[in-house]
Amino acid sequence: MSNNSSVAVGSFQQQISFRLLLIQILVVIFLCINMLLIVTFFKKECFHTSARYILFAVMLMSDSFVLILSNVLVILSILQFTIQVWLCTVISIVTLLYVMATPVTLTAMTLERYVAICLPLRHAELCSTRRSIHCILVIHSISSVPSMLNLSIFFATASLGLYETRALCSVEMFILQPWQRHFRSAISQLYFFIMCIIIVFCYVQIVKVAKAASGDNKQSTQRGMRTVILHTFQLLLCLILLWSPFTEAAALKVDVNLFLNIRYFNYIVFSLAPRCLSPLIYGLRDEMFFLALKNYICFCFCKRFTV
């Protein structure tokens, strides 16, 4: 009996180690790609005056922050390493802010495509560099509201002594009452409902323009349509992530191993996957950005071999 139990424990630890290693490999790959695209953005000055590329760079940085912070939380959770609650609060505030910043930025980028295709004469005015900076401030302000509301409730209900205690850092730690979970879910789903309406509206308007366009304009409009469709898919993955706590809670009541498997699957598919779609949508599909990226990579290789 003891031999069977030791074999089972060893197999479980081996499985956990493999999953942790796979997560680290994926995170490192996505971070390297994001950093390469961010450096390409800063190297090319023409990108600094375009709203679509500015918002793209903002989303890349948001995704990178989420990848780093969520990976730290995953490692702490797997290693069962506890930290003080006040430190966990700081990490959670930043994580929740940038988790929400990605879909909000996606919505802003979809609106920029709508203006470029449906209102081309006003695009230079509405999507200027100055307005893009204001848009970034609005994105972060809107993205901070859900986390501020949820954490304000936690600050109001938690005792002062709780902040000095040590615990496993998790977003679920800030839910002290069952109604707080429903409140958090309601706010998040309200956000995504509004964002879905905006994206559907933009897509319908772009389709109308595509039917009336011809030649090069038609090709440009169709590319815009495909971009909006990819944004919708990416937003859908982010939306499903909000439902993950409910499926994980139901699985935990059935079996612990089922809970761990579903949680691992949710993290890979609904947390990591949306962050790898950003480089695909704008970094590789966009001809201008892809050309700048290729030139930068070739320049780095040539410089390395000539030194």
UniProtKB/TrEMBL annotation:
Highest taxon, organism lineage: Eukaryota
InterPro entries: GPCR1_Superfamily_Member (IPR052921), GPCR_Rhodpsn (IPR000276), GPCR_Rhodpsn_7TM (IPR017452)
PROSITE patterns the record matches: G_PROTEIN_RECEP_F1_2
TM regions (residue ranges): 20-42, 54-78, 84-111, 132-156, 186-206, 227-244, 264-284
Occurrences of domain G-protein coupled receptors family 1 profile (ranges): 33-282
GO MF annotation terms: G protein-coupled receptor activity; odorant binding; olfactory receptor activity
Cell compartments where the protein resides: Membrane
Keywords recorded for this protein, A-Z: Membrane, Transmembrane, Transmembrane helix
Record's GO cellular component terms: membrane
CDD domains registered for this protein in UniProt: 7tm_classA_rhodopsin-like
Main localization of the protein described in the UniProt heading: membrane
PANTHER family: G_PROTEIN_RECEP_F1_2 DOMAIN-CONTAINING PROTEIN, GROWTH HORMONE SECRETAGOGUE RECEPTOR TYPE 1-LIKE-RELATED
Protein name listed in UniProt: Somatostatin receptor type 4-like
